[in-house]
Amino acid sequence: MNGDVTSDTPAPRPVLTRARIVQAAVGLIEREGADALSMRRVAAELGVAVMSLYNHVPNKGALLEGVAEHVIAGLELEDDPSEPWQTRARALVRAFRKVAHDYPRCMTIVLTHKIDTQLGLRPAERALALADAAGFDGPTSVRIMRALMAYALGAQLRETGVVKTLDNLVETQAESWAKLDAAEFPHVVALSEELASHDPETDFEFGLDLLITALDALPRGRSQSR
Amino acid sequence: MNGDVTSDTPAPRPVLTRARIVQAAVGLIEREGADALSMRRVAAELGVAVMSLYNHVPNKGALLEGVAEHVIAGLELEDDPSEPWQTRARALVRAFRKVAHDYPRCMTIVLTHKIDTQLGLRPAERALALADAAGFDGPTSVRIMRALMAYALGAQLRETGVVKTLDNLVETQAESWAKLDAAEFPHVVALSEELASHDPETDFEFGLDLLITALDALPRGRSQSR
DNA sequence: ACCTGAACACCGTTCAAGT
DNA sequence: ACCTGAACACCGTTCAAGT
């Protein structure tokens, strides 16, 4: 009858649990990078023997999937169906940007591991719902969802620097302009200043606007009511 | 005077070189997956001691960057500036899709490693060039490039299944429909058939069309003449 | 300049033993 | 049911030695 606190021994180490293991992993990754993640490090962090982890997680791969899942669970997907579908679509895509900002160093794991919880279906459901509300037919709605997802993921990949690939090095290597022959890369050289200046928010919204605008202009298969 | 074949000893093992090492790595990855890649495996593949690799590559990270570079080098970027810019833009984005198909299992490495060769600048230069030809001003051209890149990368991420995340599991888990409560995911359930049917080419072109169409409708800062 | 084997510190995971 | 230490096979990389 004394409630659920049945003992007052000083700070009894909390029980080991999959959730706690995943959280420790996420913390470690954000602090030291994905390469620093190892079963042994996680165990140490939790003050526990390595093999104890295997009581809650079958292997390292499963732990990584747990990390991906945890990040995706952080998507803030509140929605107001009474809003115009364009607004709802923007909110959805922006949610990805937000979460990528919250867990920058986990992104490479999120992008390379599947999520087999229903959690992973929430964004899909949301996108399909608003395409439906916009009056698109089924097959078109599916394609719209995929286009939005592609942009959401790709924009993050670019911005978070997960992909340091391609144009990003233009920014980070601004000092080595001299070595770029203007003959081979005339436009890159000419626009070096714009390329180096950073306004990721505007860049992101620009691309998002393009997509929404194009969707807006698309012929609808059905009436647009609801 | 006997040309460049100076000896006829039976197949003298070819010299070890960075290029050969990278190629072996790419082959190994495509055959057995990125997880199977190790310095030791690569060395074995080349019939060489592990430490020999370190004469041509400073460490594993550098080898992975070499792999990314090799894949990006495979982008087929032939271009005809006399074509309308829309056509050129489509060709550019499609080149990414092509290369992702050629090296599916290397993609996760390409997406997570920087490329500091000028090779990585070719797509950027191309995108900026065609935006210029379309009559857009500098800052807008840069944003257009970024939007195209984001879509090119994101679409690949989705399709290649690098991201098994999100809607992809809808397809792979079609058998578990029953377990999905239609209450929480009504649209996903209703469109399960469309979601499971695979036509990645059309999906890809749909999103690409959206972007090009939107760009077409955008006001130009300059005349459109070349 | 390039190759090599031995060694070191670190992995993920199996197994057998404990409670 | 959960925890643990020892052991195994495998890593990346340093070092000292060879040519």
Structure write-up:
The structure is a homodimer of 226-residue chains. The longest helix of chain A has 22 residues, at 138-159. With 226 residues, the first copy, chain A, is an all-alpha fold. The model of chain A is unreliable at 1-9 and 162-166 (pLDDT under 50). Helices cover 55% and strands 0% of the residues of chain A. Chain A contains 11 helices and no strands. Chain A folds into 2 domains: 18-58, Orthogonal Bundle (Arc Repressor Mutant, subunit A), CATH 1.10.10.60; 85-216, Tetracycline Repressor, domain 2 (Orthogonal Bundle). Chain A has helices at 18-32, 39-45, 60-73, 85-102, 107-110, 122-133, 138-159, 168-172, 186-190, 192-196, 200-217. The radius of gyration of chain A is 23 Å and the shape is flat. The interface between A and B is large, with 68 and 68 residues. Chain A binds a DNA duplex (19 and 19 nucleotides) through loops. Chains A, B: This is TetR/AcrR family transcriptional regulator. Chains A, B: One of its GO terms (molecular function) is transcription cis-regulatory region binding. Chains A, B: Residues 38-57 bind DNA. Chains A, B: InterPro entries: Homeodomain-like_sf (IPR009057), HTH-type_TetR-like_transc_reg (IPR050109), HTH_TetR (IPR001647), Repressor_TetR_C (IPR004111), Tet_transcr_reg_TetR (IPR003012), Tet_transcr_reg_TetR-rel_C_sf (IPR036271). Chains A, B: Keywords: DNA-binding, Repressor, Transcription, Transcription regulation.
